[in-house]
Design a protein that fits this description.
Largest sheet: 7 strands, mixed
CATH superfamily: Jelly Rolls
Number of strands: 11
Bound molecules: fe (ii) ion
Order of helices and strands: HHHHEHHEEEEEEEEEE
Number of domains: 1
Structural class: alpha+beta
Distance between the termini: 45 Å
CATH topology: Jelly Rolls
Shape: globular
């Protein structure tokens, strides 16, 4: 078994244990068991360095997923959607994702995207929106989540293991505190490689 296939199996076990109706709709779109892992080129990003240096808050359900993720962290195909023009260079130093399932992911799907979104400490993923219907499952750290795009709007703490739904085209934002944040992001509908609308032309 590769580190990715182990991570995939452990992640699916955790997701089935959560048994959330909103999440279950996404899990119905998982690729068939016959879907083979694709070989993707390894790439690391500055955000990876924060993960191994920190004690991460997890739940009992998300801990095995995080342990498997951290074991392979420097061997994954890390990527970023944004450039410095979008949210600045400082944001890019503490942001990245690994696509597990999707058109660019280890397990190919045009119907479902599952990615590990990582935000380094003291960073804000500013308000953005997309056509895809999205769920966040915070796995580790303290996910402070906001819906809307007004300055001063409330960020609500969503602990590891909770489900945060962002309907299609609804603005949302997430920020970390002094720990890095690892969120499993799920997309369905629309173009699963779409770059989010940041409100900038
Ligand atoms: Fe989103």
């Amino acid at each position: 078994m590769t580190k990715i296939s182990q991570l995939y199996e452990i992640t699916k076990q955790a997701l089935r244990a959560i048994d959330d109706p909103q999440l279950n709709e996404f899990l119905e779109l998982l690729p068939p068991e016959t879907c083979r892992e694709r070989d993707l080129p390894t790439r690391t990003l500055p955000v990876c360095d924060y993960l191994l240096k920190s004690d991460l808050t997890c739940s009992a359900t998300t801990r095995p997923v995080i342990d498997a993720f951290l074991e392979g962290v420097h061997g994954f195909a890390w990527d970023q959607t944004y450039t410095a023009e979008d949210f600045g260079e400082d944001f890019l130093q503490r942001y990245g994702w690994v696509e597990l399932v999707g058109e660019r992911g280890y397990y190919y799907s045009t119907k479902l995207l599952i990615s590990f979104l990582v935000i380094g400490p003291h960073n804000t993923y500013p308000p953005h929106r997309h056509v895809a219907d999205e769920n966040y499952l915070p796995l580790a750290g303290n996910a402070l989540c906001m819906k809307g795009r007004k300055n001063g709007a409330n960020y609500i703490l969503r602990p590891p293991g909770s489900i945060v739904h962002h309907p299609s085209r609804v603005w949302h934002s997430v920020r970390s505190d002094d720990q890095p944040l690892i969120v499993l992001a799920f997309w369905r509908w629309g173009n699963l490689t779409e770059k989010s609308d940041t409100g900038k032309p």
